Each structure stands twice: as C-alpha cells, then as structure tokens.
Amino acid sequence: MFAVSGALVMSGCASGGDSGNKESTTSESAPGAVEEIANTVPEEIKESGTLIVGVNVPYAPNEFKDESGKLVGFDVDLMNAIAGTLGLKTDYREADFAKIIPSVQGGTFNVGMSSFTDTKDREQTVDFVTYFSAGTQWAQKVGAGIDPNNACGKKVAVQATTYQDTDELPAKSKACTDAGNPPIQITPFDGQDAATNAVILGQADAMSADSPVTAYAIKQSAGKLESAGEIFDAAPYGWPVAKGSALAQSMQKALEHLIESGEYEKIATNWGVESGMIDKPVINGAIS
C-alpha cells in the first residue's frame, strides 16, 4: 500500500500490535441511520455505538492518509457511510495487513477494511461482504517493455500477503519453470509504497497490484511509471467479518441502501474508481 507523489515518498506501513493506532471518524457526508437496517446490527456492537475497523495504510486511493495525517480514501468514505446507515461511528485501528483477518476472527476488530480480495481460501476463516470489483494490473518504468504474460526471470514487486503475492505471481512463476524457463523473482514488501518505489528506483522490473491502486500509482508518479499490459483477473473486494456473524447481513443491507440512494456511486466517482462499482453486494462472492 503506497503513497507516491512527484519525488519519492516512503510512507511506512503501520505495524505493531493487532489493535494499532486508533482513529475515530464520523464522516460529514455520511448518511443518517436507517432504523430498519440499524436494528439488524448485533446487540453488542449496537450497544457500543461503534464499528471497530481494522485497516492497513497506505493503499491509495482506497485507504491512505492525507497531508494532515487524516485517514481518507474510497474505502474510508464508503465505510463511514455504511456505519452511518447502521447508526454507528467508526473506530479505525491500524494493523499489519496480514494480522487484520486473524484479528477479526479473534474479535479485536468487528470488520476489516483494506481492499481485501474475497477468495475461497479466505472464506474458510471469515465471511465477506462484497462491495467492489477490482482486477490486477502491472506497472513499469516508462518504456521498460514488460509483458505480464511473459515475465520469466523478471523481478516483480508486490505487497506481501496480497492476492498478487500469494496467488497470481506464484502461478505465473510455476508456468515459467514448468516450461523450462527461469522463475519470476517475486519481491514482497511490507507496504505497497515500497513496492512502487522499488520500480521507480530500478530495484524491480515491474509491480503488480489491484487495478485502482496501480492506476493511482501511475497518476501520482509524475510520468515515471506506465501500465504494463491490460487489467486482468477481475475479482470482488470484500469486508471480512467473523464467520457466521449477523454483521455481514447488516452491512450487506446498508450497502444495498447506499447503492439505491446513489450515495455509493457518488463516493466511487469522487475517487475516480466508478469503473469497479457493483450492482448487488453478496456474502461470500469469491470466484476463486
């Protein structure tokens, strides 16, 4: 997860304990509570009045911090709107990406919000409420000529434990070695910012990330980066909640309401990610 603007910016990914730093937020534009939907929230969460959200930043434009240190982004605005519909405030707690799902399982967080791809493997441990469709896209230094479908022997930067690190690149690398070619040198980083900067600095040949993240990285790189190939492997983003929790149905209903009211489209358009909007959220909508 990254933040690149003109000159290199090395915004470190949050680490430390599962609860991390806290940031309570109520969006000025968040809709008011819809009583019928708010009444479906699990009693313990309803009584607390707060939705505890595990987040890992930066991963612009989805979740990152602005120059004043405020947590912003598409995911942030949408989660604030979801919480508002449910009659709740949001309490964002930073954690390592890999610790968010275990912390949801353990009850430290009510929900995770870090551009999680909903996969069948992850659905074994948590339930997901889908809210967006994102593909994978590669970026390279301008003119590098990298082909994502023929990258044997190339060094490709990724954020550790993301779909690109655990699924996409290992499969591509295996295809290389099965054909008698050198493997892809998968180079994981703790944060997307570092992965992006590795390409800019020439320490990696390319990077692979979710399509809105790659598009934003290119836009913010001041002409240093360009796309390598087209968007592929579209898959749903989802919010992970504890397995079997009624919170999943509550969030699904809240998002349905935001879609119907037009608030969802307004938020997506504001962040330039409207191409990934979905028509209907589902629980556990993994396609692979």
Describe this structure in words.
This protein has 288 residues and is α/β, with parallel strands linked by helices. The protein has 2 domains: 22-134 and 236-276, Periplasmic binding protein-like II (D-Maltodextrin-Binding Protein, domain 2); 135-234, 3-Layer(aba) Sandwich (D-Maltodextrin-Binding Protein, domain 2). Helices cover 31% and strands 25% of the residues. Helix 3 (74-85) crosses helix 8 and helix 3 runs antiparallel to helix 9 (263-270). It is globular. It starts with 21 loop residues before the first strand and ends in an 18-residue tail after the last helix.
Secondary structure topology:
Blueprint: E1 22-25, H1 35-38, H2 43-48, E2 50-55, E3 64-65, E4 71-72, H3 74-85, E5 89-94, H4 97-106, E6 111-112, E7 126-141, E8 155-159, H5 163-178, E9 185-189, H6 192-200, E10 206-210, H7 211-220, E11 225-242, H8 247-261, H9 263-270
Parallel strand pairs: 2-5, 2-6, 8-9, 8-10
Antiparallel strand pairs: 1-5, 3-4, 7-10, 7-11
Helix pairs in contact: 3-8, 3-9
